[in-house]
Each structure stands twice: as structure tokens, then as C-alpha cells.
Amino acid sequence: MIEFPEFRPRPPWLGADLQTLRNLFRGPVTKGVAGEGERLLLAMRDGSGDQLAARLHSGANGADPLVVLIHGLSGSEDSDYLLASAAHLNRAGYPVLRLSLRGAGPSRPTCRLQYHAGRTADLHDVLAALTQEHGVASLFLVGYSLGGNMLLKFLAEYGAAFPIAGAASVSAPIELEAASRRILERRNRPYHSYLLGRMRAEALGEGARLDSGERRAIEAARTILDFDNEFVAPRNGYAGARAYYEENSALRFLDRIAVPTLVVHALDDPWIPGRSYESYDWTANPRLTPLLPRGGGHVGFHGAGSRVPWHDRCIERFLDAVSGRGASSSASAAPSGRSHESR
């Protein structure tokens, strides 16, 4: 068993909302990576001509796994939480790649199409380029929020095709419809307005290939549910939002994951219902190690005792184990699947 620190919130960031919003108020701990690193353009293999942008930061030891960080909804390689994780793991000596998904951030000008919650073939093409063209011999994958859902689905579908030492998801909406409806609750209106505005701007950005009907659908959407139903779903071959959510929710793929995977989620996450995680039998798949503290917000986890977010410290400990750095690496190769909760 890997011993993880207990999560205790760091004052004044008490409660789910302050945990979620802390980086907006203060910014991340980013020293060591912001604006640095080698720019990579990774070609998609679907004939679209799209290329995904990424920033590569070398590590201290060429034998360590490359840590690939995958952002969430309306994010990019420059999202605060990605910068914080990259800074911490790179300082620990690991090589890190910050990926911008198809049509996001620096990938927007080089892509006509756009990512979605289940577009795992894109991650397949990224890892194929890294292993076949850039000589990467070992990988550790981390997905945040919507990127976490994509990652968990990817591991079930393609995990055996690549040299993946391990993986971690943070605050993933593993039941997409439940998360889409939760964000519509009255208490979440400020979050919803912010996300929808960013989604519109991203979809309409430079390089996007849209017909007039798609532009109208994007501009007319009044909710994220509308956006998914009228734009994302039909554009990607789904009958509507419900079919898109059902087909791509990571919850239905968890049993098939064969890669040691850390699953981190706060039960008070204001965006994602805790019951999505509590309803799953974590003992059904011993490759999964759930960390489900009662607090932490959405990709927050600003804990007592360190300015480094708690989830980054847990990811580092798990990464040390699966990569052979940690003394408990042999135990981590077959995680127990037991849920760890904060008291």
C-alpha cells in the first residue's frame, strides 16, 4: 500500500467554492515552467491536417517516465492547475509535457476540429507520435476534469498499446450527464456562465472549421447542455447530448482499465456529484486506487502543510512508486482499490 497524506484544507481556503476558486484569486505555483520548454506540434492521423500543440520540459533522468498532463473543459497547456502540476513534478526531476487538446489554446490555430469528452483517438495519436517519433520509452498520464474523463476512457480502450507506467485523474466528471445537470443548479450559475463563455470563444476561435448552422448553434446556446446537444453531439455523430454523454462517460469504462491508476476526487466538488464516485465498487478493479476526501472542491485541494496542491503531492508519491523510485513500488503495481477518505 502507498501511504498518502491526509487532506486538510489550508486556511483561508475553507469550503468547496474557495478551494475551487483559490487559483483565480492568487494564481498557481508556476515557477520553473511558465513560458519555458520545447514547443512540439503533434500531427493527428485522421487526415484532418490538425496538429496538437504541447510544451515539453526535460527531466533530470532520462530513464524516468514522461508525465503527460491533459487539461479540462475550456482549458489549455497554460491552465493554472496544469502549470502548478508541471512545476512541481518537473522540480521533482520528471520530464513533463503540457498538452493542449485539439482546438484548445495554442492548438486552436493549428486545428480545424475540436476535442470532446471522449475523443480518445487524439490521445492515441499524441502518444504514438511521442513514442515512435520522439523516442519516449515510458509514460505517466494525468488528466484533469474533462481531460480526466477522456484519460480514463482512453486507458480502457488503448492502455495496452503504449508503455504506460501509470496514470492519475483529478476531479473527472465520470458521469457526464450528471455533471452537466449539476452545473445548471442555481448555486453554480457563476461557474456556468464563465464556462459557457469560454466554450463559445474556444469553438469560434482562429482556425475552427464551422458551417453556418454550427455557428448559429454555438451562438444560440444558453446552457452547456444546449451547447452539447446542438453543437458537440451532432458534430461528432451523436443523436444528441444524452447519447454523447452515455457513450463517453468514464464510469462505464472503469472495470476495463488495466493500468495502475490513481483516481482523485473531492466529494464536495461543486461541479461533479460525489455520488458518481460513491456508486462505483472500487474493489471491482484492483488496478484503481481511489482517493476520495470529503473536501477539496474542483481541482482545488489546497491543503495544510504545503503550498503545493495536495493532489500534486499524491500524484508524485504514486508516480514515484510505479516508476520504481519509491520503496513501495512493488505494492503499487497492484493497488488495492480501497478508497482513502479524509476524516
Describe how the helices and strands are arranged.
Layout: H1 16-26, E1 38-43, E2 51-57, E3 66-70, H2 80-91, E4 96-99, H3 120-132, E5 139-144, H4 146-158, E6 164-170, H5 176-182, H6 189-203, H7 212-220, H8 224-235, H9 241-248, E7 261-264, H10 275-278, E8 288-291, H11 310-323, H12 329-332
Parallel strand pairs: 3-4, 3-5, 5-6, 6-7, 7-8
Antiparallel strand pairs: 1-2, 2-4
Characterise the protein shown here.
- With 343 residues, the chain is α/β, with parallel strands linked by helices.
- It has two domains: 16-175 and 249-332, 3-Layer(aba) Sandwich (Rossmann fold); 176-248, no CATH class.
- Helix content is 36%, strand content 13%.
- It contains twelve helices and eight strands.
- An eight-stranded mixed β-sheet has the order 1-2-4-3-5-6-7-8, with helices on both faces.
- The two termini are 19 Å apart.
- Residues 328-339 have low confidence and may be disordered.
| Order of SSEs | HEEEHEHEHEHHHHHEHEHH
Q: What is the alpha-carbon Rg in Å?
A: 19 Å
Quickly give the structural class.
Answer: alpha/beta
Q: How many distinct helices?
A: 12
Summarize the amount of helix as a percent range.
25-40%
CATH H level, superfamily name of the largest domain: Alpha/Beta hydrolase fold, catalytic domain
Largest sheet: 8 strands, mixed
CATH class of the largest domain: Alpha Beta
Total of domains? 2
Shape: globular
Instruction: Give the number of DSSP strands.
Output: 8
Examine the secondary-structure arrangement and name the CATH architecture of the largest domain: 3-Layer(aba) Sandwich
- Please state roughly what percent of the residues sit in beta strands, choosing from under 5%, 5-15%, 15-25%, 25-35%, 35-45% or over 45%: 5-15%
Strand order of the largest sheet: 1-2-4-3-5-6-7-8
Spatial gap, N to C terminus: 19 Å
